[in-house]
Squalene synthase
Amino acid sequence: MGRVCVILKHPDDIYPLMKLKIAARHAEKQIPPEPHWAFCYSMLHKVSRSFALVIQQLPAELRNAVCIFYLVLRALDTVEDDTSIPTDVKVPILTAFHHHIYDCDWHFSCGAKDYKVLMDQFHLVSTAFLELGKSYQEAIEDITKRMGAGMAKFICKEVETIDDYDEYCHYVAGLVGLGLSKLFHASGSEDLASDYLSNSMGLFLQKTNIIRDYLEDINEIPKSCMFWPREIWRKYVNKLEDLKYEENSEKAVQCLNNMVTNALMHVEDCLKYMAALRDPSIFRFCAIPQIMAIGTLALCYNNIEVFRGVVKMRRGLTAKVIDRTKMMADVYGAFFDFSCLLKSKVNKSDPNATRTLSRLEAVQKTCRDSGVLNNRKSYIVRSEPRYNSALIVMLFIVLSIIFAYLNAKRPNN
Ligand code: IN0
């Protein structure tokens, strides 16, 4: 569907989209003057546009620590993902990465495009890292050490069981949760969250990415690692790539629904983690990716398109999430809405239907029991367009401008 059609179908996306664009322009202009910090922030904007915006809203000291943490993790990821690096070269780099971040002379060229620039100029990230407070440095070092070792462990390992899947997701995303909780605590704004809940926050995001990216990962040349656990997909097909073939569509969707049901297991922990946050900017930073994740799962569930192309939340809906997420009531509202959407898509004949429904009902109960579900705008799309007051006001403004322009051009008589 073309952009104009999408906008016509969702006219109430226009206002949040415009707001997001203005905020993004503003954020891009706020690059610090010091060359190493300027590099870090412009890199952050390049590798993650909407996420960079939310990082930008954090208090200054914490914002710098999160920015560096994010870039260090991206660099570690770039090494892990580069299939052209032989294993015997890759392993020592991954396992010693926590030392490299202290060394402004260290350099290893790999990756492509923006990631190659990140690796080539990594000394600028190290320079900025060395200016962070000691407690921020120690948190980043500890997580980098554990994640590098975990990535090295999984280089030649297939994801066989659901336990392997949870372990892999712990290394690449759960540890990010543990690290962020430490950074929030170090900033003095939050209590230290439990490792268990921090881990769940990362697992929920990462499992959603793994589900959404099936086709991209399976079609990658040279072949990349696949993270769908054999214990799940072997119930439906003989080989993981069989899921993408049309003749296996029914099995593929059942397998997909099984993966979504597995990811839903973490939702209640995530809600508990977010409910305990106190600082509004830290809260938004954590809540926006979580709402995007449940929205993406709702879009992917029972959707054969996951095996045919890219399934992503439309930009307008992302803009709405960024615009509307201010407090816990907004999170409960969003999780409730997307659980309703998910529930409406569950087919009674699906092998996991009972398990899926009971997870969704548990999520809805948590949201309902919060007592704050009233008085909110829904995220669930109606089939016919809603020409709401915002659109009418916009139309009125556009017509007024045209009318004023035509009037000004009329010759005076
Ligand atoms: C993240 C996470 C993230 C944010 C907030 C709290 C978290 C708590 C635990 C674990 C991770 C948490 O969020 C980003 C979101 C992101 O990058 N979004 C992309 C969109 C997309 O589709 O990928 C964007 O461009 O906006 C995230 O996905 N990860 C991440 C990485 C580092 C940090 Cl510091 C925080 C990656 C991952 C693998 C899920 C942990």
Observations:
- The pocket of IN0 is lined by residues 48-51, 66, 69-70, 73, 172-173, 176-177, 180, 201-202, 205-206, 285-286, 289 (CB under 6 Å).
- The mean pLDDT is 93.
- The longest helix spans residues 162-186.
- The chain is about 70% helix and 0% strand.
